[in-house]
Design brief:
Blueprint (H helix, E strand, L loop, with lengths): L2 E6 L4 E7 L6 E8 L3 H11 L2 E8 L11 H14 L5 E5 L3 H11 L4 H4 L2 H20 L1
Parallel strand pairs: 1-4, 4-5
Antiparallel strand pairs: 1-2, 2-3
Helix pairs in contact: 3-5
Length: 137
């Protein structure tokens, strides 16, 4: 049995989250510089079984694609060419960064820790994966 892996793709950094093997619990894994993402994925997939990759789908309030979607589409094409055996799905990621920041405040993180954009990206990827799991139940 494999895991689901979620990506909060960004221009500079990408947050990554994974499920347990039963696909019940989403947990933050890490944040990597986007230019190193394929190297990270290649190594990760060498050691772990992943049944599906979920990529956040940024949308505006009027349901139109966000400006970063222009960067995500070529990434998705390259992802499917590099790992054709792993299906890719999308998950609406509206408000995940705001919810992630709110989660950091609610969990008592100090202001300096809340400025850590990498942590926000990792939490956002976890939220994307949690929403995906809820949608698929």
């Amino acid at each position: 049995m494999g895991r689901f892996l979620a990506l909060d793709y960004g221009k500079k950094k990408t947050g990554i989250a994974v499920t347990d093997e039963l696909k019940l619990i989403a947990s933050g894994l890490t944040t990597v510089p986007t230019h190193e993402l394929f190297a990270f994925l290649t190594e990760y997939l060498r050691n772990e079984t992943v049944d599906q990759i979920i990529v956040g789908e940024p949308k505006q309030m009027d349901n139109t694609p966000s400006e970063v979607e222009v960067l995500i589409r070529p990434f998705l094409k390259r992802l499917s060419l590099k790992f054709p055996e792993i299906p890719v799905d999308r998950q609406d990621e509206r408000f995940t960064s705001k919810i992630a920041f709110r989660t950091m405040i609610d969990s008592g993180l100090k202001k300096k820790q809340r400025r850590n954009k990498a942590l926000v990206d990792e939490i956002s990827a976890t939220l994307i994966l949690q929403d995906y799991l809820k949608r698929k139940q």
